[in-house]
Amino acid sequence: MSVRSSVVLGLAAGVAFCVAAGCKKKDEEAQTAGYQQGQPGYGQPGYGQQPGQQQPGYGQQQPGYGQQPAGQQPGYGQQPAGQPPAAGQPTAGQPPAGQPPAAGQQGGSAQQLDPAAGSVAQPILNQLAKAEAPAGAKPVGAALVGNFAQGQKLEGQVQMQPGKCYTVVATGTPPITEVNVQLAAVTPIPGMAPILAQDSDQGASAVIGRKPNCYKWAAPFAAPAKVVLMVVTGQGLAAAQVYEK
User: Fold this and answer.
1) Alpha-carbon distance 210 to 214, whole Å?
2) For residues 219 and 187, is the Cβ–Cβ distance under 8 A?
3) For a disulfide at 216, which of 7, 145, 165, 234, Cβ 3.0-4.6 Å?
4) pTM, two decimal places
5) How far apart are CA 209 and CA 131, in angstroms?
6) Is 58 within a domain?
């Protein structure tokens, strides 16, 4: 082999080695660039991330399942603000249906009726007066008669005379099962009416001032008093009558 041939073969081998080495280096650079391109922190958007969209940081609270972004949620059994109670649910301050009013809770005023409308209750009033009032006691004025719903009351006035004693009888017709009656002072101060006497009976009839201890008016002068008739349980017609001796 001549010297020229040896040189040509050497050059050819060098070129082949250089070309092979250069291609390998380019392949490694391309792989490195591709790896960096898909990683966060290299300025490229991550998997599923839109460019320019901010992702919540670590520890940032996310809305829970079914949770409203803002505003307090109503608690168990609590009505949302502004929403009326469900049908059949009592409003605040009212007893559930079928339950009598609590002690001292009143349901307003009953419808006052003409005394003639109390003809149904009058025989019962007369019998109570005969059994409970002192002998010789006379009725004062007309009977107080009303049509009552449960918890309602009705008021009337009687003029109390010095040296006299008084008996008040009251009754209610079925289905009324509990009646109360009171004598209260009349004062010029609204809402101020001290109780002078009240019954202690249970049932549809009530009496103040049973014989022989009728209620005695101790003041040396005449003054008005209120007769307060109340139906505690039941509804219907009730009446009261004052007797004086």
Assistant:
1) 5
2) no
3) 165
4) 0.58
5) 12
6) no
